[in-house]
């Protein structure tokens, strides 16, 4: 195979071919000292460090710079960066680069927890914007243009706006372009967590990428939808409002000084995969998807929903929660991305011509799973099927004030009107239901109870055994 169009992969391969003798870190010495299974040990022979000819992620001048330039050309950015700690570090860096202590930031309340961590670390003050309910997917989608307009009238000093696009479930906010224009008219940079959209660029049938809609900084988990290793991600900047040097500065501070060459090589490879993805590949992907849809829809009681992003499918079986469906699928060796009350979410492979077709016994396994589900007790779905739009809200206290306040654990039913000390995050998909500093509403109490009853898992300040959450003592 030729690696000419992957500068970093080529440099690593050439280095590897020399059979170099290692008197440098890492200590596994090309995997020789490792006790890992053979395939993993072999991969370690490429796990090197900043040696001559292999450049330096933090001051790229050679092959990493060439690889990042190719990335930037593909996505149409001013500059693009390789990230070795996921979109998580991208979200932290883009916020650090744009806001400081007590600055106001518009935040979509279904943002990933890394955005909330960034707010805590920077000390910025969040104005939480409620997203719209998407009845088709029974999930929260994007923020409405009208909410952004209203927020900017109420809070004219906002310093930045952060949006998630698309959502985990593949819902792409059709109003994002207008929202970006509205923010730009007031000189407010728009930061987009596009963790689930690194593949949008491969074909115009996918939703538009946020960068093409005018966003200033965009973060993408290449590992989620492109063939990159877990954690390998991209960050793109194209902005008159955000200084690229500040983003680079924070990435330098927040990322390891020993970034993994395996991760970086897989980013170079993923970029090349996306760049070389052609119409024939997309047609092949569509026929794979079509076949899967047809087969799944032939199973009685199974409902398959399509969303904006063709790489995602939602699978439901009438009368059963997604959690129960996920369990019986796993008994058949089929692993989904996540489950919620209503469905399981599948992330399809972005196949190219010549890649795998569907496993021959896949549909048989699906049928067995659904049969097992019908034998099991039906789980009553909660009556509350939608999330009414919550009013715009902000933290009742600054990050510093919250840090100083005493807290207590309180039964959920009694928590209405109190201020949550920490986030409460149903997991997956890792989106806070309660944000730190937020006053708990009746609606939030009801949703928490519903989710607990339905067997959801949580991270954050919720004690699932005693049904208590952590609130501050005012
Ligand atoms: C919307 C969103 N943003 C950011 C992240 C974090 O991405 P990573 O796992 O690449 O750090 C996730 C992870 O699931 C996510 O869903």
Word description of this protein:
By secondary structure, the chain is an alpha+beta fold. It folds into three domains: 172 residues, Type I PLP-dependent aspartate aminotransferase-like (Major domain) (Aspartate Aminotransferase, domain 2), CATH 3.40.640.10; 97 residues, Aspartate Aminotransferase, domain 1, CATH 3.90.1150.150; 78 residues, Orn/Lys/Arg decarboxylase, C-terminal domain (Ornithine Decarboxylase, Chain A, domain 4). It is built from 15 helices and 19 strands. It has an eight-stranded mixed beta sheet with strand order 1-9-8-7-6-2-3-14, with helices on both faces. A four-stranded antiparallel beta sheet has the order 10-11-13-12. A hairpin with a 4-residue loop joins strand 18 and strand 19. Helix 4 runs parallel beside helix 5, helix 6 packs parallel to helix 7 and helix 12 crosses helix 13. Pyridoxal-5'-phosphate binds next to helix 4.
